[in-house]
Amino acid sequence: MAQRKAFRWHIVVFLAPAVLVYTAIMIIPLIGTLNLSLFGKAEGGRVFVGLANFATLFGDPRWSTAFWNALANNAWFFLIHMLVQNPVGIMLAALLSSPRLRMAAFYRTAIFIPTILSFVIVGFVWKLILSPIWGIAPGMLDAVGLKSLFAPWLGREGTALTTLALVSVWQFVGIPMMLIYAALLSIPDEVIEAAEIDGVTGWSQFWKIKLPLILPSIGIISVLTFVANFNAFDLIYVSQGALAGPNFATDILGTFLYRTFFGFQLQLGDPHMGATIATAMFGIILVGVCIYLFAIQTRLRRYQF
Amino acid sequence: MSARSSLPRSVAAHGILILYTLIALFPVFVIVVNSFKSRRAIFNEPLALPTRETFDLIGFQTVLSQGDFFQYFLNSMTVTVFSLFFVLLFGAMAAFALSEYRFRGNTLTGLYLALGIMIPIRLGTVAILQLMVATGLVNTLTALVLVYTAQGLPLAIFILSEFMRGVSDDLKNAGRIDGLSEYRIFFRLVLPLVRPAMATVAVFTMIPIWNDLWFPLILAPSEATKTITLGSQVFIGQFVTNWNAVLAALSLAIVPVLVLYLIFSRQLIRGITAGAVK
Fold this sequence. Notes:
The structure holds two protein chains of two kinds.
Chain A: H1 9-36, E1 39-42, E2 45-48, H2 52-59, H3 61-96, H4 104-116, H5 119-130, H6 136-143, H7 160-172, H8 174-185, H9 189-197, H10 202-229, H11 234-240, H12 253-262, H13 271-297
Antiparallel strand pairs in A: 1-2
Helix pairs in contact in A: 1-13, 2-3, 3-7, 3-8, 3-10, 4-8, 5-11, 8-10, 10-13, 12-13
Chain B: H1 7-35, H2 39-44, H3 58-66, H4 69-100, H5 106-118, H6 125-134, H7 141-164, H8 169-177, H9 182-193, H10 195-211, H11 214-219, H12 228-238, H13 243-273
C-alpha cells in the first residue's frame, strides 16, 4: 500500500475559518492587550515602560487602594458562590435525580429560567424587590412578622456586595444543578444496586457512593465559577453603575477595568492602565486554572465503568 | 422495588423543590404581573394579579412610543442569528477536521482552540476596540458578530468534536467507497447525524450572546446598532421613575428568551445528559 498521499487540502479548508476568526478576534487582541500594558502614554505617542504600570497598579496608593479593594471584593464574591451556589446546586440535582420523582422535568426547567435572563432584568428586578420604597421585601417580611430584619441591603456598604453575590447565585444556580444532574444520571444502576445490597442507602449512599463519583464534575464547576466570577461585570454595572457604589463597596475587577479604560465622571480613560488591569486579571485567571489543572484535576480519582 | 422511597422522603423532596422553584420564578412573576397594572395598583398591591379595575397597558404604550424597541429587537436577532450560524458552521467544520483526520499538529490545534474556553475574550477588549476602530467597524453589527463568533467557537468545537468521534466509521468509509468527496461526507453524512449536539451548542452559544451587555456597550452603542439588552438598560436609566414603562420594557425583554428557551429546553437537557458537557 502506498502510504504517500497528496496533501490533504480539505483539512486546511475545514480548519481555516475557525482558526482564522479565533486567532484574529481573540488571540491577537489578547496578546495585544498584554503588550499594551508594557507601554505608557508619552507626548505624541507611547513609550515602552516595562513593568512600571504594574508597579503603579500594585504599589502607588492612587491605584493600589482601588485594585486591592476590587480584588478582595472579587474574592469574597467568589467565596459566596462556592459556599452557596455549588452546594445548593448539588442538593437540587440530588433531589431531582431521586428515582421516580414526579414533575422532575418541570422543576428542572423552572429552576433554570433565571439563568437565561439577562443581567439587565436580573439586576433591576432585585433592585425593585429589595427597594425600601416600593417594598415587596419589607412587605413580605412584615407579613411574617419580621419587618425589623429589613434593611436597604443594596445601599449599605457592609451588605451590598454579599447581597449582589446572592443575587448572582440565584441567577446561576441552574448551571451546577444541570451539570451535577447529568453526572448523577450517568452513575450506572449496578453501582447503586450493589450499594443497596450492602445496606448503604439514603444519606450515607449519597455521601459515600455518589459524591466521590461526581467529584470531577464538581471540580469543573468550581473552575468555571472561578473564571466567570473573576470576569464578572454586568450585574454590578446594571445594579450599582460603573462606580460600583456605595463607596466602591461592590467594586470588582471587571468594573474597575471598565472605569479605568473608559474613564468616568471627570477622570479620562487610560488604555494603558486598562490593559494593565486586564493583564492582571489574565494572570489571576491563569493561576487559578493552572492550580485546578495541575494540583486538583490530576489528584481526582476517575472511575471507569 | 425497594421501600426506601417512603412517603415522607418524597414529600420532603417535593417540598424543597417547590420552594426553590418559587424562589426562582417569583421575580419574573412580579415583573410580568405588575407590567399589566395601573401605577397606583403597582404601589398599593404589588403582589396582586391585575383585576378589571387595575388592568392597564399604559406601560407598554410608553415603551412602544418612546424607545425604538422594534429596531433593538431586530438588531439583537440579526447579531444572534448570524453569530450562531458562523459558530455552528465553522465550529462543526473544525471539529470534523480534528476528530476525523490524523495529521501533524492535531492535538496542538485542539489545545490552541480549547484555550478560549478558559480565557475570557473580554480581557482582550482594549485591543479589540482598537482593531475595530482601525478597520472602521465600530458601531456596526458586523463587529459584534465577529466577536461573538470568536467567543462561541472554542466551546462549540470542544463539544462537537466529542460527538463526532461517536459517528460510525463504517458509514463514512461506505461514503468514500461510493466516491463522495470529504466535503460531501461532512455535509451530507456527518452533519445530519450530530444535529442534537448542534442544538445543545446553539442554546449554550445563544444565551450569552443575546444577554451580553459588555460588547454592545463598548463596540456598538449607537442608536442604530443598540441591542435589546443595551436598549432596555438605557431605557431603564432614562425612565427610572416611570415604573409602568420600566416593568413593561422588562417584560418585553423577557419574552423572546423565554420562548426560545421553552422551545429548546428539551433538546438542551437531552444534550447535557448525553454527556456533551462532562
